[in-house]
Amino acid sequence: MRPGPARKSTAMTASTNGTAPASIPRRLFAQTDGVRGRIALAAGFGLLASASGVLRLSVQGVALADLFAGKPFGDVVPWLLAVVALPFLRLTFITLQQLVGHETAARMKVRLRGRIYAHLLDLGPGSLGTRRTGDVLVAAVEAVEQLDIYFGRYLPQLVVSFVAPVGIFLLMAWIDLPSALLFLAFAALALLAPNLFRTRTNVTSVERRRAYDDLAAEFVDAIQGLPTLKAFGQGARTGKDLARRSWSLFEATMSVLALNIAEGGVSNVAMLAGAAVTLAWGAVRVEAGDLGLAPLMILLFLGVEVFRPIRELRQLRHQNLLAMASAIGVFDLFDTRPVVTDPATSAVPAGKAIEPVIALRDVTFTYPRATGGTARQPALTGVSFAVPAGGSLAIVGPSGAGKSTVVSLLMRFFDPQGGTVMIGGHDLRTMTRAQVRDQMALVSQDTWLFHGTVADNLRVARADASDADLVRACTAAGAHAFVSELPAGYGTIVGERGLRLSGGQRQRLAIARALLKDAPILILDEATSHVDAENEAIIQTALAEAMRGRTTIVIAHRLSTVSQCDQVVVLDRGQVVEAGTPADLRQRDGAFARLVAAQEVAYAVEDSADFVPVDATPVQSPTEPGRVASVSKVGMTAVAEADADDAGVIETGWRLLQLVRPQWVRLSITLAAGILGAAASVALGVTSGILAGAAGVPGMSDTVATLAIGVPVIAIVAAGLAWYESWISHDMAYRLLCEMRISLFARLERLAPAYLLGRRTGDLTSMMTGDIETVESFFAHAIAPAFVAVLVPGFALAVLAANSWVLALVLVPFLIAVGFSPYLIGSRTDRIGNRLRAQTGLVNAHVADSVQGLREVLAYSYGTRRLAEITRQSEALTSLQVAYGRQLGFQTGMIEGTQAYGGLAVLAFGGWLSTQGTIRATDLPLLTMLAFTCFGPIAQISQVAKELQGAFGSGRRLFRVHDAPVAVDDGPGVRTDAGSPADHPAIEFDGVTFAYEPGLPPALADVSFAIRAGETVALVGQSGAGKSTVAHLALRFWDPQVGMIRVAGRDARTDILDDLRGRMAVVTQDIYLFRRTVRENIRLARPEATDADVEAACRRAQAHQFIEALPDGYDTRLEERGASLSGGQRQRLALARALLRETPILILDEATSHLDAANEASVRDALVAASAGRAVLIIAHRLSTIRNADRIVVLHAGRIAEVGTHADLMSRDGAYANLMKSQMRQDARIGAPVAAG
Predict the structure, then answer these.
(1) Helix axis angle, 73-128 relative to 36-68, nearest 10°?
(2) Does domain 22-338+664-963 have CATH number 3.10.20.90?
(3) HSE of 690, CA atoms in CB hemisphere, 13 A
(4) What is the pTM of this model?
(5) What fold characterizes domain 379-573?
């Protein structure tokens, strides 16, 4: 699917955001070039299958007429033998049609998914910045999957539905023109009547698609931020919000179904009434002598078959409508145009070297306005500077000054509205985006690692890098030692976003990746903000070597990095306020000197005011490096393999049935409607058979007249009951789906964050959307039909046995074969179905990772390879779908063939018995029709076998989530006799030993310390020492295997979790902000807080000023993860959130690492005031932030190495002193740290 021509835009993303539903079929069909021959082939096989079915029934009608007329059985045998081959032909044609259809759909889905991601690469972060990940996921995965029906079944069936009635009409016209004209009229009504609902159906389908997208997007946001929600006790509240969205989806779905079922009801009435009226009129004409008996018997058998193509098209309409609605999201994405495009011809010939000279000349840039949002303030205004080849430039300034915006312009994620950005003397707009990005290696402040091994993530920079190259890069970045200690070394899975590693470890791998690229221009955006001092010294040495001979731009607050730069540019509110060498700028006593002086005050004075930082953002990196669930690639496949395992159809079906119990009233009504509908269908078949038999017997005019009226009436009643059963069963089914979605999130909320280590966001989203949607077929299409499938054959066998036990015995084997065929044929199909749902989850997860890591994909020219990976994943999925379709095609054909041979057997044996005088010939039409009718309910179950097997596969995946053990749960909440909380430490670790998984080294070993109210304790140590694990255990995200954690003197395990976490405010390196307004994000800490409370907290956190400058102030809606804000701005919002939350325990994990010195000093004062009387735990790499703590606990490899005050520990000349000396050596290069926010 090729996107429309790109229109260059530097102001905003262009998107229709309103693709006309009426244009979707045309636009989708336009994408089928190259497979239209296959669509025609599938339609051809469908026509041949229809022809063989019509011919079989016509010949059987002739045979029945001959038997009815009393001809010898021997005269009828040739007709019966002629019929024998026709069911086999139909089986063959159906199998081939489904095989070709599935292969066609598979090819189209791989093509579409590849085109979608290729278009995402073309759009880049600039165009996708305001799109929700969930929206993109639904478009790239679920919507494409729903289009399977359109390409594989609907298009071929559409051809069959228009062509087959013409052929059938010609056949019937040859038999009897008046009957043919009646058929044609009712066929046209059945085919065209749904168009009366089209306009309203399109509208409701779009509304349903939006509700579906909203649910998916909000679920992604909630899952990614679930640790944050739990830390604030807001998991249940978010669950209620998702529940409201689930019910909105239910209402939108039922609006679509109301119209769909109504139009289906109209079509069904037309088909059943058409067959009934045609038969009734034929019977009247036979009785009157105007029509022969043979044409009547043919009409009897053809009554329903002639409408089969239209009926099969109608059965696909609901799924097709949902597919069309989903396609709107796909085309909305394709209609979005990139904000940055390549020139028609690059100013730099391919392969020509570009001199690494950077220049910005009078650059002005404003970020695109969000749809419906207020215009933004310029991020940069009149910015100019230059960096010569091999030179280095540091960009410093307060948070939000525009530093990272410069990086985005250099990477051509955006183009400026004014001025010029140049490399090698060439305006970047005259070069291709790939040419620009190939010149640069980027380490961003928001490091993104993909789900894969350490080696996979490093080779993002250079696919052909050898193992030795990886080791050299990691050694230079200070990463080789910790990577070597991981369970599988360089083959260890790092998890989505690198969550299995600490912030410092992720940063070092990002630096190694940049070094591996070996580009002429190096851009370091806060590259060492999460690295401890010892490793920083190693990395700085490596970076100094890497910078030699390379043009380098550094955005940093670490003096050790800035001190190596030739020039410094100071930005403030998007403007250059100062520029020069570091030494010159210090002497000017200007902005740079003030930033330096502010940090000198912060870092140089040992006896300064107590520093007590606070935050309330939850732990987002639930692992200590090398210690938490870091496993090999082989190990990580266990989740997908578990999802693909066969847990048993009976067990899964029983568990699904248990979910129906709360809906027993609707279930009872559904069963009653189903049974009555089946009775009406049987009655229709019986009365039709009696009518046909009576028409051929003289003296039964009254019976014929009565039945001629009764048969159409029964047909209308049967259609009405079918309509009602469909409505009530779907109403019940979608209510249950809604409850399942609510239950799934509630379970994940209890399981998080431990369970999330083994799951990827995209996979969980696939469960919430696709898997639960798939289960609908069990609730709506299996429960009531299963009862009917027992009752109807039982009744039919009873009637047959009453006439002749031989006929009943003849039919039984065929009924058993049809009933057990899904089980006999479907064991392999079921296994494939399980693997198919698991693979769908993997594709979803891979696409989510690829979309959220798009900046890294583009920065490292990884797009082509990433697209190839997505294509491989898609091909693996579609190969399973083709195998699945092959099995199901054969299964469907076998079921139809068995039905046909069963009916033929009853006709043959009944005919022979009639010639022997055992049964009456006039009963043959009734008995034969009854035999055909009794197969219907069983065949209905068999025909939805694909959907049911998919439902069982999805059900297993969902039940595995519910069966997963909860790592921690609420305690009894009963206060013990521990005495007053004031008599005990606010929090105490007593001999705590903890490992994230059995078999892994402990993250903490025999750790003991306590913090009383009013005390500040600092945790320090190298990356991976176990510092963040302390925060995880304090929040009871996990429980220790040995030892105890006490809060206010009592075992933390005895508390209600929300009560326990309500006593703490926590922040980590990875701050999570939701796709909500600024006000809503801050109020997450205290939902009842007033606007004045929120504003006061923001003022204390030095966030109020930048918030007011946002387009809509406190009502500005943030992007996912707060991506539209700088790291410092996100940190200040997190601090404001912490200040809003009044708790006795405050935990801070690198909470001010992105703040500039001036803001940090102000925030420090606010935190000192806020911390009075509270227990404070500081986790930090920067030792200068914790030197005034009451006690410092030094962790090494999970154990306490030292405890004491700063002065005590320095005098011991131990581990703490060594860490401090490493930092002092770094800072001594220029005398003090330099601010950068």
Answers:
(1) 160
(2) no
(3) 17
(4) 0.75
(5) Rossmann fold (3.40.50)
